[in-house]
Amino acid sequence: MRTIRKIKLAVLAIGLLGTSSCKKNFLDVNVDPNNPTQASVDLVLPTALGYAAYNLGNPYQVLGGYWGQVWTQGPTGSQFQAYDQYSITSTNFDRQWVSIYAGPLNDFKYIIDEGIKSGKNNYAAIGKIMQAYLFQVMTDLHGDIPFSESLQAGKGVIAPKFDSQQEIYDGLIELVDEGLALIDENSSVHPGADDFFYHGDMHLWQKFANTLKLKIYLRQAYVRPAVAQAGIQAMYAAGAEFIDQGDEAAVPFSNVTFNQHPLYAHINSVGEFNILASQTSIGSLLALNDPRIDVFYRRATAAPNTGNHVGIVQGMGRLLPNPASLNDRQFSKPGPAVGGPGGPAARVIFISEAESYFLQAEAVLRGWGTGDAEQLYYDGIALSFLSWGLSIAQFNTYASQVVVEYPVAGSVEEKLRAIIFQKWTSMCGSQNLEAWTEWRRTGYPDIFTVSASSNIGNKFPVRLLYPDSEVTSNPNTPPQKTITDKVWWDVNTTGQN
Amino acid sequence: MLLAQKNVSGKVTDKKDGAPIAGVSVTVKGTALVVQTNAQGEFTLTGIAGNSTLIFTNVSYKTLETKVGTGNTINVMLEEDSKQLSEVVVTANAIKREAKSLGYATSTISNAELTKGKDRSVLNSLQGKVAGVQITGSSGGVGSSTRVVFRGGTSITGNNQALIVVDGIPIDNSQTDAGDNLNNQVDAGNRGNDINPEDVESVTLLKGPAAAALYGTRAANGAIIITTKTGKSLKGKKTEIIVSSAYNLESILKLPDYQNEYGQGGQGAPDSRENFSWGPRFDGSMKPWGQQIGDSQRVKLYVGLKNNVKEFFDIGRTMTNNVSFAQNNEKNSYFLSFNNIDQKGIMPGTEYRRNSVKLSGTADLTDKLYSSASINYIRSKGDLSIQGQGNSPYDQVLQTPRDISLLELKDYKNKFNDLNGYYGAYTVNPWYYLGEDSYTSVVDRILGNVQLGFKPVKWIDISLRVGSDVSNDKRIQIESKRVIDPNSQNFARKFDGHYAETGINIREFTSDLIATAKRDLTQDLSLSVLLGHNIRQRNVDIQFSEINSLTIPFYYNLANSAQPPRSTNFNSIRRLYGVYSDVNLSFRNYLFLGITGRNDWSSTLPKGKNNFFYPSVNTSFVFSEAFRMPAFISYGKIRASAAQVGNDAAPYLLESVFITGTVGDGQQNSQVNFPLNGVPGFTQSNIIGNPEIKPEITTSYELGLEFGLFNNRISFEGTVYSNRSKDQIITVPIAATSGYTTQTLNAGLITNKGVEILLRGTPVRAKSFTWDVTATFTKNENKVVELFPGTEQLGLGGFSGGTLVAQVGQPYGSFFGSSFLRSPDGNIVVDATTGYPVIDPQAKIHGNVQPDFLAGLNNSFSYKGFSLSFLFDARKGGVFFSRTRTLQEFLGTDPRTLYNNRQVFVVPGSVILMPDGKYAVNTTPVQNAENYWTSVSSTTAMEHLIDASFIKLREASLTYRLPASLFRNKSIKGITVGFSGRNLWLWTPKENTYSDPETSSFGTGNVQGYEYGTIPSMRNYGVNVRLTF
């Protein structure tokens, strides 16, 4: 008995001992084999740029297209009817808010932190510059947003406070300046193919940053003209260079499934019958004999409008008489070059050459920059023609028309009207959000008509609401706005808005 | 004088049916002489004293003593000892315990009860027979899944299903579905349904942590302990061969009610392309229908077809065959079985086939060393159908106008029914989907275990049991390319095609080293101590490849695309080891005390903080044996227990990771996936890792009473319990502006309190006729007490407008969304101009999925060789969202849309809100009756929550066992024939004209309560025969 008891205890003891020693590595299997915990910055930069391009090129493009009156809802669909009805709620654009904050903004932060940590300053520079770009997009849409306390879940900040738009605009300038300071054109450590804009050419990033800075200052031209003036004058004094011919900042797409232009992919999936041409834009282009109309739009393919450019009065689509006789092929649609049907390989533009010139023209016009505003105006239009594959000859024909001429003898306001009108025209279909934002700021072009299906009466919408996901998860969200509440910099009362 | 000696022989038979009983020990009282009865029940004793008393004993029968008497022949009849049959319960780790010593609630179901309904699934076969558990089969699709939840479940976002254990080894019970549960969903079943019920000797249900503490982390939700047959089950008989077959038919149990007054069209006008039934009233005239192809067009009578949906479905049929060979010798036993199931489903073209082979053996190698081994190979193939929204045939069937015959559309190659010529511009011919699209799942699975045991002395037993469960599931999904003429009215239905292959490989490995010692300490006190060591590992490997456009139609190969295939893989491994101990004291065999403790180390928790300990204690007092009881009380026991169980985390939650970039706008196929422009891209995952995760802890208290009256003619088992599950590991949404959208943390507290009652009685017990009644009652109150600081609500799933949430203060599973705005009196508020109901801008809680109570009632009658039984299963309370109802309103097929003959009407009881804040009676009718149903009512999800109560005739069977006298001296020992059926009849409250409340689009998942176009549930009925050799 005793012997057996001893053996039994020994067996158990050995068993347990064996347990503790050879088990230390047995449990060490909790490293996720499906997803890496580290990624180098060159793997994150393309995703950050790609996600930003998706949101800019599809959901925000459509919003800007409808509210900037280049597109309107077709009679046989209802996908974007709410945009024309001006009945946007806090559920709309919730997805994009989440996608941008938890996506590219957070990824650019990673690129900044990891870039500085691993000595890749050029990456960190791009991170800061692009953060400024995206934060400006978000604040221009939503007003006050989390900025200084945002993106810090790692430090336990899961309910960041909302900063005022004024504070954010100051912060944007700081971000761009920090980015510019980090740029090292002589370093061999810079992106390559992972940089969709410039393939690592840091001189071009410098130009991009300066153009962005110019845009940020000019946005404040009415609300804080002194700040804008000082900032812009300092830039010119330091000899800042801006985006020039060939320096367009864009993300390309191709005809590979799931690599296609975001708007094209949406249209291909949902149907072509929702986004049709708005008469506001079509009428304007036809009146000015603008050959770019065949780039921005594709002609109608069904009777009685076959072969012509026909738009629908903004918001009239579903109110047209005799609906049974209507179909989407009777109207113009976005052209392939801007990601419309047949355009999977179009590009999403962040800042265009024409835009850069129009910004400079305005800066000079206001007396804050140096140069020739009239020349910059014409150069802007010419670059727009060239970037869409049209010729200088076509530009000359267009620009020689009286209605296109720069009003040399006119007032500052009339000159501004011309510049912004041409900017709006050049952005048709490809930079709709910026075009609409500039209309909010300046009131130009002043040819918009309140949507025929407006649910809010004779008013234009001028912002988005705080999204549901933020309202329910962040107690610091300010009280909800309405879409007719103007954002901080939107103080101008000349022009239409 | 010498006492006369003589030889005595005789026969022992079963009192109930006169069958001979082998293996009965016949002992001469007061001597060491004992013999066994042979296969014919006969025995012979030589040279015994003439005044001897003989004792007849057998474990299944009541012991009988009788004097030898004057002759040389003694024939006796033994009575079955029913109490004895259930006295031994198989508990955790396949440890057999005496039922009376258990301090917690268990239920045991024998093979005979389990296989009465001839269902292919062990889990389905338990429905209605046990208190304290909710078992739901999710749809009528072949091979579909079954969900088992004890006592309301313990986890907010984790697993709530019971653990399934076969012969001491936990097995995989996972379910991997295609689609997102609402769109293009395929229910390919759960692995727990693979086990063949004919192979099962008994099933014990351990309902909560107390019973399952020894199982460790996965036992917080209880455990289903399955013991399969071995040769030892023969109990004395030497060899037994059983052949059984069943043939069952299946038909739909419940289809929605339809209106048959208006046909295809909109706003009262005909439209031959429509899926709407908002057209003109039926007039019986001959009218053209469908498209004009060339210069011809079909014509038909313009009448409602009451059965067009019913005709679409086939009568399903299932053929089941089972053969088993078993042998029991003194030292070893052998068991071999073959099982084959061949099922053709009610959805045309779907089928499910399962074959299984099982072999097990036991051997007492020496008097100290014993061993056993078992291996089971199961192969199943399912040819399944998509359900829910999307490319699902059933969705197209539901969208058929009242006057269109589905059988007319069957020939989808006919020019009037093909892709270009099909009548419907908004749907696809469902026969096309059934003919050209498919989803198959082929599963190869092996379960096995080996055990080696050593008894150095009689009272010590050391055994090592090692088992493994390996399954490989190959899925292939085909969605054909639809090329449609751009000028056709059906052009929008074009589709590039989709082909996907998935390989799912799951491996579970378990090992248990257990040492037990049992000893009588004194005459009254005995002690048993168990020490155990457990290792567990689970691997999941999934590979998935797909192409999203086909170059050559109808050629299904990953190379057949202009784009390269998209491939992903997923691997996960988790490991755990634990030590545990179970100490049991028993005093005079009527007072028992048990204490367990277990400590686990898990790979999924942070290093250095990855172990956790949890104890339990239980006691049971069989007061009927301790005290003198009045004669009518034959058995009485009171029991109580308190237990804790921990639960570890899912793998890989501790660190934040990067994932491949993919961004979209929510529409199907409009996303951008990386690599983009040939450049790979990764993004930070939106879930922030938590390196501080702790295990979840469930604490449960239980109190129970069991008693038997009148010699156990009436018996009662009742339990009350209270469970608390805290430190739930949940992923909670956080503000996206923090850079992440979800965070995993320990938070939340769920409580479950309830009562379970089982009442059994034998109202009539006559010589050849008995009537047994069993009733069960289960009531569980579940409450979400806490989520995490600052949050009152956590979304669990569903869709925008009808989300299922966990809401603090409510039971788990509340529907959250906006309904019609109502005045404080409950009247619908309408817009004064349009007459349409106003939508409440404030989203609210509108109902809960949890039932108020569940109940079952079984009546069994036996008369000579006949036995008849029927089992009713009922549920009261809880609601479910019926997509069928919203779809019927939208399409105009719901009889309710006939209201006021489809003329404009005032919404009944409606009021308008006056500027002064008061409500006035509304007199404005809705602007348009059709628009009310299609745009206002059917789009407000929260108006379509239906009472989920039901009563079902869950099982009925009539069997006849041919008299034993027919089989004397034949090789066949018995034949039983019978009819049986399951889910034969359904009652639902008047408002539920739509579907069986048990159907669910989420299978075994936590988000229940959504009927989103699931294939209707079925009734089945058939004949069966069983031959015993």
Characterise the protein shown here.
The complex is a heterodimer of chains A (497) and B (1029). Chain A is mainly α and 497 residues long. Helices cover 47% and strands 4% of the residues of chain A. Chain A has 18 helices and 8 strands. The radius of gyration of chain A is 27 Å and the shape is globular. The N and C termini of chain A lie far apart (100 Å). Chain B has 1029 residues and is mainly beta. In chain B, strand 48 and strand 49 form a beta hairpin. In chain B, helix 9 packs antiparallel against helix 10. Chain B is globular and about 110 Å long. Chain B starts with a strand and ends with a strand. At the A-B interface, helix 1, helix 2, helix 5, strand 2 and helix 10 of A face strand 28, strand 34 and strand 35 of B.
Overall geometric form of chain B: globular
SSE order of chain A, one letter for each helix or strand: HHHEHHHEEHHHEHEHHEEEHHHHHH
Instruction: Count the beta strands of chain A.
Output: 8
Largest interface: A-B, 83 and 76 residues
Residue share in helix of chain A: 40-55%
Mean pLDDT of chain A: 92
